[in-house]
What does this fold into?
Amino acid sequence: MSDRRAVVWGASGGIGRAVVEALEASGAYAVIHAGSRRLVAPALDVVWPFTFDLYDETSIAAAAAAVAAAGPVDLTIVATGILHDASHQPEKSFATLRADAMIEFYRVNTVGPALIAKHMIQAMPRDRRSVFAALSARVGSIGDNRLGGWHSYRASKAALNMIIANLAIELRRTRPRAIAIGLHPGTVDTSLSAPFQKGVADGKLFSPTSSARHLLSVIESSTETASGAVLAWDGQRVLP
It folds into this structure.
């Protein structure tokens, strides 16, 4: 059994849950900390559940401290995010832009992962490879934007990509073997993407299980040269 440790923030979501299951199946981790809003019963002894509130930095800090106290963390995955809910939908034009929606998207897609990174740095080992990975999206790429729309979501993911780039720069000074990357999972068959799957090409709608396997493969093959980048499910770099 490996002595590696992983933590998944957002372990009750479609991709997050599949990532925890894929980490379990890999047998590569002695402990998998699985964080969610409500406590989830573990399927195996290696899964250690915890709760946190993405809107509350005190809650994030306390959860990160508890994780760090259990031992160094080799892999941190942030699988939280919002694209729509009962009150917020992706905008089709600037006429529908609302300040409260923009703030909500930034709080969940940018500020939350940034605060998790802030408090998880303490748990990342200084003497060996470790990875901090957050779910991003290709639509957060400014260079790849051809369609426009989805203003709040695009902007919040673009901001997340900058957070990841800045984190990578800071980690090089204190943890030179650490890697910080964003992950574009493609279109995954979850409640997040359900209203927007109609135009997805055949073979490009992934199950959470296959998506998790793709993402873990990208994480395992990433080197320090990729730190600060956003990588797609197939390992290709996404334009800044």
About this structure: The mean pLDDT is 93. The longest strand covers residues 178-184. Helices lie at 14-26, 57-69, 99-120, 151-174, 208-221.
